[in-house]
Structures are given as C-alpha cells and as structure tokens.
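Late entry, written up from scratch paper. The run itself happened at the end of the previous shift, but nothing got recorded in the book at the time, so transcribing now.
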Amino acid sequence: MPEKQTLQRARKDAREGKAPSTQAGEFVREEIHHVREGKHGVRNPKQAIAIGLSKARKAGVKLPPAPKGTASARKQRVHRGTSKRKPSPKRSRATSQALKREGRSGASRRALSSQARSAARRRTRSSRSQAARKASRTRSRERSRSRASR
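Output as recorded:
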C-alpha cells in the first residue's frame, strides 16, 4: 500500500494536468526510498521502477499495461475481469521475504544514474529533444504560476 503522502503528491500532479508517467514517478521515488531505508532490497534499478509502476497502476494512474512477458503483465492478464480478491497471504509473504533477501545497491545513486543513461540512449534524438521542449514549456508555466501566487 503506497504511503498517504505519495498518493497526495500523485493526485496533485494529476490535478495539475501532468503526464501519467510524472504521477507514477512519485510511486517509483517512494519505492527507491524504501530500498534505501532498508525496508527491502532489489536486484537492480529496473526492479525498483517496476514495483513503483505496479503500485501506480493499482492506485489508478492511467499507465499503459506492463510490457508482454513480464510477471506484472501476466498478473494483469490473469486478473482482468476478475473481482478485487485479497491476495493470498502465503504468496505476499513469499514475495516480501524474497525482496528482503536482495541487496540494497540496486537503488544507489550510481545504479540509478547508469539506468537513466541507458534508458536515454535507447530513445531517439528527436524524442529526447521533444521531451526537453515540453519540459521547458511546463517549467515556464509553473514559474509564472508561483510568481502569481506570491
């Protein structure tokens, strides 16, 4: 269950009209924080991101379904059209125990940095450029809003 603050931040992002990926970023940030404080571990940054995105989907953030072949995609397919059943306590315990056995270095600054770089490398130049332009637009809008509220 995501923390109350995380849900509030995500809802605020939704109200401000920010992209679903930005809203989901709050859940990913929370997950990385959990790993760093020692609540559980992850094998690599991708796993922390996947857990965060899964929580975001469950919280109602309008994200596309997980890529085919991943465990969360299989879960989504299985549960489509089924009622919201309580997960089996045995399975939940097994999952959390497995995560507790994993290391903590998956959420280190270094690991996250190399993950971000490799993710950026997979994108085209025009895609990166377009994202930067959009960011600058929303940034200037945010600045003017904060000036008006002063």
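The chain has a mean pLDDT of 88.
(Scratch paper discarded after transcription.)
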